[in-house]
Amino acid sequence: MRKKTRILVVDDELSIRISLSELLRRDGHMVDVAENAGPGLEMLKAQSFDLLIVDIKMPGMDGLEMLKLVREEDPDVPVVMMTAYGSIDSAVKAMKLGAVDYVVKPFDPMEIGILIKRILDDRIMKREYELLKHQVKACGSYGPMIGRSTGMLKLFELIEDVSATDSVLLISGESGTGKEVLARAIHEKSDRSDGLFVGVNFGAFTESLLESELFGYEKGAFTGAESAKQGLLESAAGGTLFLDEIGDASPKMQIDLLRVLQERKFRRVGGVRDVQADFRVLAATNRDLEQAVAKGVFRQDLYYRLNVVQMHIPPLRERKEDIQALAEHFLEKLRVRLNKKTKAISPEAMQLMLNHDWPGNVRELENAIERALVVGKSKRIMPGDLPMALHKPGGIPADETLDSWEKCYIGQKLEQYEWNISRTAQALKIDRGTLYSKIEKYGLSRE
User: Fold this and answer.
1) Do 82 and 56 touch, CB atoms closer than 8 A?
2) At what angle do helices 421-428 and 432-442 cross, to 10 degrees?
3) Which segment of 46-50, 282-286, 360-364 scores lowest on mean pLDDT?
4) pLDDT tens digit string along 317-368?
C-alpha cells in the first residue's frame, strides 16, 4: 500500500485554501495550509512535503520569492504555482525558477487532480530510479552485500562458485553480520531462484512448535489440529531451505534433521507416510559448532552433513574499510523510505563510526543510521544524531556510575544476541533469572 502524500497549500485567500484542501483530501492526500509565505516556509523547515501548491500573488513575500527560498531549502520538492488569468508571464517566470507546472484560477477540479497525480507519480519514479542507481553503484560488492575488504571480496568469489551447485552450505558469523542476506544472495543466484526461499530460526520456537512448523501435521495429530497443515519443508520444495541458528536445535530435532539430510524425506507430525524433500539446504550459526560437538551438545554426524562447504562472514570490526560504504548505502536506502532530506554524513560522525567496534555488526550500523535519520535535523548526519554507544570507546556511558556502566553493557549484550535471554545470560555468566531482574531494574527494552 502506497503511503499518503503530504501537500502544502500556500494562498492568502481563505476560500482557495478551503476548496483546494477538500479536493486534495478527497483524493487521499494529507494537506497542510498556510495563509502566506512566512508560515509556509516555517512549515517546510519543520517537515517534509511531497508537493507544494503556491499562489504567485500574495501580500508581503510573493510566490516567486517564496519559490526561490524553497529551492534553497529543498531543491527536490515539486512546486506548482497558482496564478490568475491574465498573469501567465508570472507563471513563465516561475517555471524558469524551478516550478514544475502552474494552474490558472479559477481551476477545474478534475484537471488539477490529474496534474497532481502525474507530478507525484513522476516523483515516485524518480526516487525509485535514484535508489536503483545507488544499488547498482553499490554492487562493487555482491547484490545486497556490500564490502571492499579482502575478506568480503573472497566471500563474493565463493558465492559465485557455490551458487551453481546444490551442495549443503554452513554459514558462520556473529549475530548481525548478514548470514540470512548471504543465504538469500546464494538462492537468487542459483538454479532454484524460481522456487521459494524458506527460512526457519531454531532459536525462535519451542521444540514442539518448531516440529509442527517444520514438518507440518495431519488432522488430529494433537489438540487443536483441526485440519492438516503443510510444513516449511514442503513449502521449500524446488527452492531453498534456510536453517538459521542451527546451533540452537534440540537433540531430538538434530536427529530429525539428520534423517532429512540423509534420506531427503520426512513425515508430518501424526503422519504415517513419507514425504519426499526436494530443496537445497543452507544453514547458519553464530556458535562454534566444532566446540559444541566436542562438548556433546551437537551431533557430530549432523555437523559433517551440514559442513560440506563452510562460508564465514567476518565481523564488522575486522573489516572497518567497509564501514563508510555500508553507512552511505543505508543512508541512501533509509532516507528514501523515511522521506528524509539528509543526504550526507559529516566527517566527525563518520570518524565516530570508524572508531566503534560494532558488537552488533552490520545490523547495529543500519540501526544507528536509521536512528540518526529519525532524530537528526540537519541535511548531514551529525555526531549528536548517533547512538550514545558510539561516543566513547566501547560504549562507555556519559554517567560513569557503576549502575550506568552495567546498564550499558547488558544492553549491548542483549542487542548483540538479539535479545535471546539464554545466550545473553550465558555470555554474561549469570543465570536467566538474574538477567531478567537486571532488565527490569534498568528498564531495558528491545525498542
Assistant:
1) yes
2) 100
3) 46-50
4) 999 999 998 999 999 889 988 888 888 998 888 999 998 999 999 999 999 9
- Provide the β-strand partners of residue 197: 240
Domain definitions of the chain by residue range: 6-135, 150-314, 317-442
d(CA 345, CA 241) in angstroms, rounded, equals: 38
- No. of H helices and E strands in the chain? 18, 16
Give residue-wise pLDDT tens across range 220-235: 767 777 777 888 998 9
Cell numbers representing residue 245 in the block: 541458528
- Within 13 A of 350's CA, how many CA atoms are on the CB side? 15
Q: Measure the N-to-C terminal CA separation of the chain; round to a whole number of Å.
A: 25
Same fold, 6-135 and 317-442: no
Average pLDDT over residues 77-85: 86
| pLDDT on residue 131 | 57
Global pTM value: 0.59
Nearest to 142 by CA among 126, 128, 127, 163: 163
Residue 8 CA to its chain's centroid (Å): 29
**Kind plus residue range of the DSSP H or E element containing 255:** helix 251-263
Residue predicted with more confidence, 33 or 445: 33
pLDDT at 117 > cutoff 70: yes
317-442 CATH choice from 3.30.43.10, 1.10.8.60, 2.170.120.30, 3.40.50.300: 1.10.8.60
pLDDT in the model for residue 138:
45
Under CATH, which number does the domain 6-135 receive? 3.40.50.2300
Q: What is the CATH number of domain 150-314?
A: 3.40.50.300
Q: How far apart are CA 131 and CA 328, in angstroms?
A: 12
State which H helix or E strand residue 280 sits in.
strand 280-285
Whole-number Å distance between alpha carbons of 16 and 142: 52
Residues listed for the chain: 447
Does residue 211 carry a pLDDT above 70?
yes
